[in-house]
């Protein structure tokens, strides 16, 4: 009996060393076949209840025939409490109920305790998750090279369970058939891919097919929306090739295009689209409804002298398939025409010279592409309009958009025109009008962003025909326009946006001129920043004068290019050796300040801070020492000392005179 007990203990000890076997049971339960673990379902919905039972057959577990057997549970490494009772045939049974299983995967272990030794005797794998989500966004395309159909889709939410995904397909029955064609698995994606390719032998070209995605796991099956399609309708067509582009007829805004369709689609009825783009507009213009087999088409409405980029694509005429890729781009420049329209011009003039000739500075805006009709080669300014058959002498012939010239006294009009390789525009009459009247009221400028300003004003009593806005950086910077300007031809507006050459932290002087029919109004002026920050540096303080209680300081204003904004104030700070700090704010228009009520014979440190609306910058510190006495006290002291000195001199003189008045050798008294 003792030998048998020793053998049983040896078996139990050896069972502790046995590894987990692929079957899921540990050494004793698998080796001695005395325990079994049963689970209601090894795969359950996440969050649902789980029931399990562990049955021990003591007669099959040598050494457990006698004594009480204690059964315990472990979920992974966490102890769980079960209910144990004696079952039929002398078995010991423990039941376990988990009301809510919130793990996606776990191992449930059954343990037996005998003679204070615990042993795992059985296990079960439990998985939890959700039924598969419905796949969506299913689409397919046919490759005309090998006539294979590639389908792709998007997976739904993760089910946390092994899921088998397949692409199903079936021929769509015709009306004469009542039974549905058999469903076959067309293809299976690799791994976790969400696409696969159906070979040619499973396809029914030029016929309707029903295609869908099926996802299956232990908790159910989900299907995507079913596609009903003819594989040829979703063929990926090769793009056409643009062969030639030309203007026809000449001097119109129409062009003719010719193309060839790809050989792989030459047998198909095709519908094509043309798109084109010009450099000034990033958007494409689309022309549809073009028959692919026609090979040529005409389009109108193009700008003259403009370089366009053209592309073309096609699809089957059934209009249910995919468009081909856009063809490689082809560039074409339309023929030029003489410039059209009026030029926006602005001027300033002053009398000069003995003959009182007029010195004129004329500026204008280059025409937009729509009016330029090609590449502008230059501009001409004349003092009289051009007449047919007679050239008018030009005072300016330039490629720039400004011109300075001298005009005879009494000149009231000049004429400006632009020309290109195809001809010259009609002349724009520029009237050199007198400047008079009241300036605009309420002129102000506010930032829109770092590179633009809104300029606003009040409508004058007599509405003008237009406005001219001028702005100039302060101080002017080489490379920027000395005075940028723009014309607003709507006389009823009360504001305009300026954007040309606007930079943050720079001051701009802005002027607005109202233009009337017979005069130019007197300008109104303002200044503005598109964005402000603290000044680049603060002024350096200088000591102008000092006494025992006052100190007068002065400084040079911050240069405009270093202000980075409007200076709102200067602040003077001073502190003595005992860290008593005081300050005073000074108007930005001042350049000096007197600190009062200082202590005599005391050392002070003083600095200045220059501030804008966006922040302040401190200057270097200035050290000063107040005097013991002020000027009046020093003068009084010197005056007192002088008087004392004079009195001492006088007393000394008196004593000397008194000493000389006594005769030498006088007889003494009896």
From TrEMBL:
Subcellular location: Membrane
Membrane topology type: Single-pass type I membrane protein
GO cellular component terms attached to this protein's record: plasma membrane
InterPro entries noted in UniProt: FN3_dom, FN3_sf, Hematopoietin_rcpt_Gp130_CS, Ig-like_dom_sf, Ig-like_fold, IgC2-like_lig-bd, Type1_Cytokine_Rcpt_Type2
Domain of life: Eukaryota
UniProt-listed Gene3D superfamilies: Immunoglobulins (2.60.40.10)
UniProt KW Manganese keyword: no
Keywords: Disulfide bond, Glycoprotein, Immunoglobulin domain, Membrane, Receptor, Repeat, Signal, Transmembrane, Transmembrane helix
A GO molecular-function annotation: cytokine receptor activity
Family: Belongs to the type I cytokine receptor family. Type 2 subfamily.
Name by which UniProt lists this protein: CSF3R factor
Species in which this protein is naturally found: Aegotheles bennettii
Gene field: Csf3r
